[in-house]
Write a structure and sequence with these properties.
Layout: E1 7-8, H1 9-16, H2 20-28, E2 36-37, E3 43-45, H3 48-61, H4 66-73, H5 79-108, H6 114-124, H7 128-143, H8 151-158, H9 169-182, H10 185-201, H11 214-227, H12 236-252, H13 258-271, H14 274-287, H15 296-310
Antiparallel strand pairs: 1-3, 2-3
């Protein structure tokens, strides 16, 4: 047909595959305007209406709103400009959906109370600044008011999660769990005690050169014992415990006696909190770091071996 051909709304529907009601709706919104009306008031559309409606259909399938579509077909905005705006809006929606999925996935792994569910949802929706304030509050509770030491800033950085701008669902789930853990007063108190104990084992409270503390020394000896298949009850563990005590005495400048072993048992028992391993596992997931070796197996071995021999 030539450029002067006009279509009825029914003919336009057949050519485009759209319902008459849909075309009428677009026409009422000014997206596709009739070229004229008959004396009886029926709409007649020009050939350009077919192309406009094809574009409208494509943009609607892509999820664009009618206001944006009208601006495109009226050339108030380019397709590139609208696509950029819509892509940004979709990205925001995707982030929201991923956050919701992370909360729902976390809920399937436990049976949270309504209050816990609300807290999980709130934690997942925190902005970057709000997440940073939450972690700063946790780390302040752990490190503030301790005697100054050169190791404090590095230790604090090593415990700071940095959720990426485009996190995976696994990272989002890890963030929700880590945030919950950081809000636990008992966990905070335990981490603070561990930091205080570590500082007390360092020369001048950490102001001097760093050295291994009793936890690190015990980890090395117990890990070797576990690798060799030595159980805490085995007679072979006697020598492991003796060497462990000797190394601690030499490193800390204390006598290798029963008092030292009782002190080691108390210190290692206090440090043996499985939530610590969980925190650092979640931290590694969030930050994209290699998974750390859990400390609990070595501490379990050390505590059991020391308790058997300290009680003698």
């Amino acid at each position: 047909m030539d450029s002067g051909t006009l279509y009825s709304i029914g003919e336009l529907a057949r050519r485009t595959g759209l319902a008459v009601k849909t075309i009428r709706f677009y026409s009422d919104r000014g997206i596709v305007v009739p070229a004229e009306r008959t004396l009886a008031g029926y709409r007649r559309y020009g050939p350009d209406a077919v192309a406009r409606l094809a574009l409208v259909r494509t943009l609607r399938d892509l999820g664009l709103g009618l206001d944006a579509i009208r601006k495109v077909v009226d050339r108030e905005l380019t397709l590139g400009e609208v696509a950029e705006q819509h892509a940004a809006a979709l990205e925001a929606q995707i982030r929201i959906l991923r956050l919701r999925r992370a909360v729902l996935t976390a809920m399937t792994k436990r049976s949270p109370t309504p209050e816990e569910t609300e807290r999980m949802h709130r934690l997942a929706r925190l902005t970057e600044d709000e997440r940073q304030r939450l972690i700063d509050d946790f780390l302040d509770a752990v490190f503030t008011h301790l005697d100054g030491g050169r190791w404090h800033p590095a230790a604090r950085r090593s415990m700071t999660p940095q959720l990426p701008d485009d996190p995976t669902e696994e990272q989002l789930e890890a963030w929700v769990e880590l945030a919950e853990l950081s809000l636990d007063p008992d966990f905070r108190a335990g981490v603070r005690r561990g930091v205080e104990d570590h500082g007390a084992d360092l020369p001048d409270g950490g102001a001097g050169l760093p050295r291994p503390d009793v936890v690190a020394i015990s980890r090395d000896h117990a890990t070797a014992a576990l690798a060799s298949g030595i159980t805490p009850q085995s007679p072979r563990a006697d020598q492991v415990v003796a060497t462990l005590a000797t190394d601690c005495a030499r490193t800390l400048g204390r006598p290798d006696d029963s008092e030292l072993r009782r002190w080691m048992l108390q210190r290692l028992t206090a440090a043996n909190d499985p939530r610590r391993d969980r925190y650092f596992h979640l931290l590694a997931l969030i930050n994209g770091w290699p998974a750390p070796e859990p400390l609990a197996p070595a501490l379990d071995w050390s505590v059991a071996a020391l308790r058997l021999r300290t009680a003698r």
